[in-house]
TrEMBL record:
UniProt-listed Pfam families: FKBP_C (PF00254), Trigger_C (PF05698)
PPIase FKBP-type domain: residues covered: 18-97
Family in the record: Belongs to the FKBP-type PPIase family. Tig subfamily.
Protein name in the entry: peptidylprolyl isomerase
Single annotated GO MF: peptidyl-prolyl cis-trans isomerase activity
Organism in which the protein naturally occurs: bioreactor metagenome
Name of encoding gene: tig_47
Length: 337
């Protein structure tokens, strides 16, 4: 926790690994600037490996006000236009910042929490960690069961659906990078990653996601899962309380149909989980095989060899092109804040 509450303070000395250097930089290839090689007032954590190999090491030792030419040879597996090329980065260092880690005592506990003592704060953290592990075990259990159901879909998944999902993954990644204050094109240049490579790497998880979406859609159809207007209203109220957003704003940003889709998927997952086992894994027993119980509802026993309704439902998805799962309603709610 002390690390999370570390603050950065100016240091009047040479930069070293672990410091944050605030720099301007511009890269030149053959004496000419190249695309994506320029940044101003960029905060670079030295030793993080976030820049091209050899760059951060040469910033070490610079002081505020220093200017320096940094010579770099890009790796052979870098972006084609720069791979193996010798370039020069002109760098100006504005400020060196070091991490100031607070003392772990009762005063720290009062500053960062509602607790008066460090002991009470630690006890609360331990409880939250235990809860998170339990939730993680539950999530892993549900993911495994849903994966088994998705594997029952034997028809070929259309390439267009996979490519569309892969594109969504890449777009989400692009947004995450830009939210960190790093221009996407600059990130691609500095890391040597191409968008084509990102899309290719995203295809396998995209295929898993599409198969999962098809399985959920098939279970929802087979089990005739329906969401009432009362269910939607209750979810709106829950989310408004959870995120501290006015109810009307939640409704403005999240259409009722999107809420229904989320609740339908949740119910489908619950059906698979509840009909598959009698005892779910504890956090410390996540790897143990759960015991079976007779199905109470007509959904899949994904872990069993016999063909149960949800398996039939999964097969019902064969040959159908269902839309990929919509973005999480809760994630969208966070954007509304």
């Amino acid at each position: 926790m002390a690390d999370r509450n570390t603050r950065l303070v100016s240091a009047d000395r040479e930069a070293k690994n672990g410091d944050v250097a605030v720099i301007d930089f511009e890269g030149f290839l053959g004496g000419k600037p190249f695309d994506g090689g320029k940044g101003e007032n960029h905060s670079l954590e030295l030793g993080s490996g976030s820049f091209v190999p050899g760059f951060e090491e040469q910033v070490v030792g610079m002081k505020a006000g220093d200017e320096k030419d940094i010579n770099i040879t890009f790796p052979a597996d870098y972006a084609p236009e720069l791979a193996g090329k010798d370039v020069v980065f002109k760098v100006k260092l504005h400020e060196v910042k070091e991490k100031d880690v607070p003392a772990m005592d009762d005063e720290f506990a009062k500053d960062v929490s509602e607790f008066d003592t460090l002991e009470d704060l630690k006890a609360d953290i331990e409880k939250k960690i235990a809860d998170e592990r339990e939730q993680a075990a539950q999530q892993a259990f549900e993911d495994k069961r849903m994966q088994q159901v998705a594997e029952n879909i034997t028809a070929d998944v259309p390439d267009a659906m996979v490519e569309s999902q892969a594109r969504r993954f890449v777009d989400n990644f692009k947004n995450q990078i830009q939210q960190q204050g790093i221009p996407y094109e600059q990130y691609m240049q500095m890391t040597g990653i191409t968008e084509g490579k990102l899309l290719e790497d995203a295809k396998e998880p995209a295929l898993r996601q599409v198969r999962m979406d098809l399985a959920l859609a098939a279970i929802i159809k087979e089990e005739k899962i329906e969401i009432s207007d009362e269910d939607v209203e209750a979810e709106y109220n829950t989310m408004a309380g959870q995120y501290g957003i006015e109810l009307e704003n939640i409704k403005k940003y999240l259409p009722a149909e999107q809420i229904k889709d989320q609740l339908s998927s949740r119910k489908a997952i619950d059906l698979v989980r509840d009909s598959a086992v009698a005892v779910e894994p504890k956090a410390a027993e996540a790897e143990e095989k759960p015991a079976k119980k007779p199905a109470a509802k007509k959904t899949a026993k994904a872990a069993e060899g016999e063909e149960k309704p949800a398996k039939k439902a999964a097969k019902a998805a064969d040959g159908e092109e269902k839309p990929a799962k919509k973005p999480s309603a809760k994630k969208t709610a966070k954007k509304a804040e």
